[in-house]
Amino acid sequence: MRLQCEVEVVSRLLPTCGLRGRGRGTRALLSLGRPPGRARGGGGGGVYLMVCTARDRVGARYKVQENIERFFTRFVEEGKATVRLREPAVDVCLSKANASNLKNFLSAVRLAHQGTDTGALPLSALVPAKTSEVEKPKTKMIITSRRDYPLTKNFPYSLEHLQASYCKLARIDTRVLCLKKLRKLDLSHNHIKQLPATIGDLICLQELNLHDNHLESFSGALCNSTLQKSLQFLDLSQNKIKALPIQFCQLRELVNLKLDDNELIRLPFKIGQLDHLRFLSAARNKLPFLPSDFRKLCLENLDLFGNPFEQPNPLVPNIQLKIPLTLLECAARATVNYRIPYGCHLLPSHLCEDLEVAKTCQCRSACLSSFIQITVTMNLHHVAHTVVLVDNMGGTEAPIICYFCSLDCYSQFLDRYLQSNG
Fold first, then answer.
1. Residue 316 phi/psi, 5° resolution?
2. What angle do CA 308, 312, 317 make, to 5 degrees?
3. 3-class DSSP state for residue 99?
4. Does the keyword Repeat apply (predicted)?
5. Are the CB atoms for 31 and 50 separated by under 8 Å?
6. How far is CA 242 from CA 217, 218, 245, 280, in A?
7. Minimal CA–CA distance to 47: which of 126, 107, 103?
8. Angle between helix 349-356 and helix 327-337 axes, rounded to 10 deg
């Protein structure tokens, strides 16, 4: 029987010499069995506990029968336990073990200690451990050139941080998509044109860096994947993205979003739903104005430098208002205003999509396809503590869209605007 965990063998004689153990374990393989070639008798006297480490793959052996003074199993559910031996006077401290496997292993050790017939015990051959069995799992790999990129062997399954930059990758390697423990994936400075939806299967992924690639889009399927619950950092800067999908704002855990040096003509319509977002950078794009939902953000740092923002003019509205309102518009407004439940099981999918992007008037009523639209000036310090200057003139203001559900709402706004401007 074998168990992989971390082990520290502490001599109980050390305190008498004024010494202490290290206090931390080493990756090891524990085996319970009989030495090769030893006769198989009826008793358990030939059963040993062997501890193999990377430094000692041959292993140290400890007799088990009637040689165990005590088991310490208070924290066994956390994968921790200690086996105290009489001779030599050492404590074998186990940690970071699978709780279920640890319980089974300790049960077998206890039976061997009591002298149970070896035929009833799950014994293993006491042979030197393989290097892969005692080496600490590799959690980080950094590749910064094409020649170092592995072509013939798989990535270590235990990777949590993988960087593969400057490798001229045209697509994401399917082997990378099998690394279920990945928390940080850096594929910057490559030639990637499209993202596979299976990136969403990386359930632990917190950071995704795709800086300096050839991406033209970010799919809605990724936004609806498990990335909704895990992704906190996303760098899409220096690509060729013109717009982000409506579903993008489902990535509610985003804290840091970088969109610099793309071809964005608009930011996500419901960007205000990103209530965890604290750092937003969308410099050097093609943004003419900001979406109305931008007002809901609460940022620590904002950079919108180098966008061709239009000069706002509230006196020149874009009127899409239809009078009288259509029955569809009235029904849609009522659904949103009164928070009536809806879904694809009740309405056609295209109507559900329209309701998802309903606009909000200054009076907080909803409007869909019938509205009046204007742009007004907003000081970006209203949504961010630190603002990078919008232009070379030292400005921190940008145009933002406003919607009105009726002529009456627009007229009230216009009166206030004209009074405030004399």
1. -120, 85
2. 125
3. helix
4. yes
5. yes
6. 7, 10, 10, 17
7. 126
8. 60
The structure tokens 């299976």 sit at: 198
State the Cα torsion 176-181-186-191 to the nearest 10°: 20
Return the SS3 of 294. Answer: helix
List CB contacts of 234: < 8 A, sequence separation 6 or more. 207, 208, 210, 251, 254, 256, 257, 258
Give the CA radius of gyration of the chain: 32
CA-closest candidate to residue 360, choices 339, 333, 382: 333
Strands (E), 370-420: 372-379, 384-388, 397-404
Q: Specify the range with the lowest mean pLDDT, choosing from 42-56, 221-235, 291-305.
A: 42-56
| 3 state SS of 398 | strand
The percent of the chain in helix, strand and coil, each rounded to the nearest 5, is 25, 25, 50
- Angle 178-179-183 from CA coordinates, rounded to 5°: 140
pLDDT, tens digit, 9 for 90 and up, residues 189-242: 999 999 999 999 999 999 999 999 999 999 999 999 999 999 999 999 999 999
- Rounded to two decimals, the pTM is 0.76
3-state SS of 196-264 is: CHHHHHCCCCCEEECCCCCCCCCCHHHHCCCHHHHCCEEECCCCCCCCCCHHHHHCCCCCEEECCCCCC
On whether the CB atoms of residues 65 and 48 are closer than 8 A, the answer is no
Mapping DSSP to helix (H, G, I), strand (E, B) and coil, where does residue 161 land? strand
